Amino acid sequence: MYGYSGNILHIDLKERSHWVENKPEEWYKTYIGGVSMATRLCWENIEVGCDPYSPGNPVCFANGIFTGTPVPVGGKYGLASKSPMTGFIGDSLSGSWFSIAMKRAQYDGIVIHDASENWIFLFIDDERVEFLPADKLLGLGTYETEEAIRDYFGDDQVRSATIGPAGEHMVRFGNVTNDGRQAGRTGHGAVWGSKKLKAVSIRGTHGVTVADPDTLLKMSFDITEASQGKDTEKYRIYGTSTNVMNMNKLGLLPTRNYTEGVFEFAELVSGEYLDEHHKVKVIACAQCPIACEQMSMVKQGPFAGAMTGIEYECLQAVSSNCGIGDMTAAIRLIDIADRSGMDAMSMGVTISYAMECYERGVLKKEDFISERTPEGIELNFGNGPGAVNLALMIENREGIGAILSEGTRRAAEYFDKERNAETYKWAMNIKGLELPGYDARALKTFAVGLAVGTRGGCHNRSAAYDPDIKSETNRFTVDETRGKVAASSEEYAAVYDTLPMCKFIRRCFTGKADRAGAWPAIANLINATTGWHFEYDDVDLIGVRAHTIKKAFNIREGWKASDDDLPWRWKHEPMTIGPSAGHVVTDEELAYLKKIYYEAKGWTEEGLIPKQLLIDLGMEDVAEEIGV
Questions:
Q1: Is the pLDDT reported for residue 238 higher than 90?
Q2: Could you report the per-residue pLDDT of 179-214, keeping only the tens digit for each?
Q3: Residue 210 counted as domain residue
Q4: CA distance 328 to 123
Q5: Integer Cα distance of 486 and 587 in angstroms
Q6: pLDDT at 80
Q7: Among residues 122, 484, 178, 532, which one has the least CA distance to residue 338?
């Protein structure tokens, strides 16, 4: 095969063994790569019904079809396991040099089975696999771990995916980091911690062969040239953090744990403010000509020296949503998350939940006593230093940090029982995964996209906020078109997540981000890489199959229609200020939206997948297990 090696590497941590599985070409045509292939590998290798922390939950990597080629923003991989946050599929994306090293080692995917008795890290050196002790790496942050491993081998070509202290301590929203990028959501770091797996390091020495290198190079050059135009300008100059002011203007910026959508100090935590006062450089992932990551640094004050890449979703979670108008505290909070290996989004929303618990009297100052804070913390909204101390408590599972390290759903269950409270009303998650940076009370299409999402509260797997924000729909109302729009938007997003390619390139094919603009070019890129004969409709099927295998995984793991829900606040408490004030998504509206969404997907009224639909998609074995 061109573009692929046909090899899936299996590693057993308990037995210290490994073997290579060869997959047929038709399997690759069905699952392609990224989150789709990673989920399929989970489907094939998981112990059905297992606890996410059990040895029966595998770690599954799947490379991208364009990794190691000239194709812009194609250097990504998918990572999947059963999520400790949701109990359903946990699928994430990351990129840069680690994925290229995996491709050069001639592996399209890696499945890591069982668990180790002692802390180890894996070294994959082409066909050789070593199980090495990780004792000297324990306690190191994610970046430090990568550097220590490179120093150990004396080779800068060794690339590593690592966990930090948060993953070691099994903070439930721990993540996995490589090359400064994060497979950032759903709790992969905690799964690695349960397996005593500190890092996976790879050195690959082989080339990547494609079917039509001349066409691929010409197309890649044209897309790269287009990526320097106006369609990516805001990402190149300000990064995604420019969305702070955009969302604030629409009244959609999460503020004080999603109580409001307008933040009075938005300008002080905006991408424009970051650019003027804290940005030190802009960096890009491997194979990326856009370079959107704004590396920013605190230059003075109590958080001086904190430095990390800043993006909108993480920034809003630790600033406006915590009522914090101090950019230095926000940078320090994201710095803690990135170095310790925590999902900054879940961390920020969990801190904002704790702040509201404090403001309402459910939690007291003395609840936050630790060695670092012997007198406790007055955790009011806006307390930047208090939030920083709490983040460190969460990282180390220290004191109340151990409860909060479980995320808002489990923390609410604990406090509601222990304090006789109703904190579930402001525990802002879907299926256990904390929400993204768009208040969906006034984004009705996005609301259903979030509610039905296979991953939980995620903006990346549903692009349904786009038609709402761009006024292609009336974002304040519900009508019969929304199910189809939501279904189409998630399948559109799934194409990019399966190739996988960064969605920031979507306007650089023909200047249009829609299917008509991008799909012919994507089909041609696939054909030039593989020698296949993909057409427009085949690209659509990539997204349909990707979403279907994730949904099928969830059904097999016990999903039911009642899991497709929204937080209590979004259904009962409208915002009171700004252009989005006065709106909620009622239970009746949500029930209707789910109904028309299931219809648009071709599923049953209960949201189950008909057997014939699975067979038509080439998933006959899946149909036998979960089809109705």
A1: no
A2: 999 999 999 999 999 999 999 999 999 999 999 999
A3: no
A4: 38
A5: 18
A6: 98
A7: 178
d(CA 107, CA 68): 12
Domain residues for the domain of 561 are: 439-566+586-626
Structure tokens at 13: 């941590």
Residues 25 and 86 in one domain: yes
* Residues 473, 485 contacting (CB under 8 angstroms): yes
Domain check: are 288 and 378 in the same one? yes
Dist. CA 198–CA 440, nearest whole Å: 37
Question: Which residue, 509, 506, 495, is CA-closest to 223?
Answer: 509
Residue 95, φ and ψ in degrees, nearest 5: -155, -165
Listed in sequence order, the residues at least 6 apart from 150 whose beta carbon sits closer than 8 Å to its beta carbon are 156, 158, 160
Same domain, 47 and 162: yes
Residues 81, 628: Cα–Cα separation, whole Å: 25
Does pLDDT of 512 surpass 70?
Answer: no
Give residue for tokens 């279904």: 487
User: What pLDDT is recorded for position 516?
Assistant: 74
In a domain, 212, yes or no: no
Q: Assign residue 351 a region: left if phi > 0, alpha if psi is -120 to 50, beta otherwise?
A: alpha
Residue 125 sits in a domain of what CATH number?
3.60.9.10
Q: Does 182 share its domain with 132?
A: yes
CATH of the domain at 278: 1.10.569.10
- Two tokens at 254? 């999460």
**304-326 tens-digit pLDDT:** 999 999 999 999 999 999 999 99
Q: What single-letter amino acid sits at 213?
A: P
Task: Pull the structure tokens for residue 255.
Answer: 């503020």
Same domain? For 511 and 422 the reply is no
User: Counting Cβ atoms within 10 Å, is residue 475 exposed (0-12), middle (13-18) or buried (19+)?
Assistant: buried
Q: Is the pLDDT of residue 513 over 80?
A: no
Q: Are 390 and 377 in contact (CB under 8 A)?
A: yes
Give the integer Cα–Cα distance in Å for 415 and 599.
38
Residues 157 and 176 in one domain: yes
Which of these, 220, 127, 277, lies nearest to 508 by C-alpha position?
A: 220
Q: 185, 203, 221 — which closes off a domain?
A: 203
Look at residue 269 and tell me if it is in a domain: yes
Six-digit token string for 45 = 């290798």
Q: pLDDT of 430-466, one tens digit each?
A: 999 999 999 999 999 999 999 999 999 999 898 899 9
Q: What is the reported pLDDT for 67?
A: 97
Q: Is residue 61 over pLDDT 70? A: yes
Question: Among residues 140, 153, 132, 117, which one has the least CA distance to residue 200?
Answer: 132
CB atoms within 10 A of CB 216: 21
Q: Are residues 404 and 462 in the same domain?
A: no
Q: What is d(CA 98, CA 96) in angstroms, rounded to the nearest whole number?
A: 6
20: phi then psi, degrees, rounded to nearest 5: -115, 130
Q: Are 254 and 315 in contact (CB under 8 A)?
A: no
Q: For residue 436, which of 463, 401, 397 has the smallest C-alpha distance?
A: 463
Judgement on whether residues 120 and 238 belong to the same structural domain of the protein = no
Rounded-to-integer distance, Cα 301 and Cα 290, Å: 32
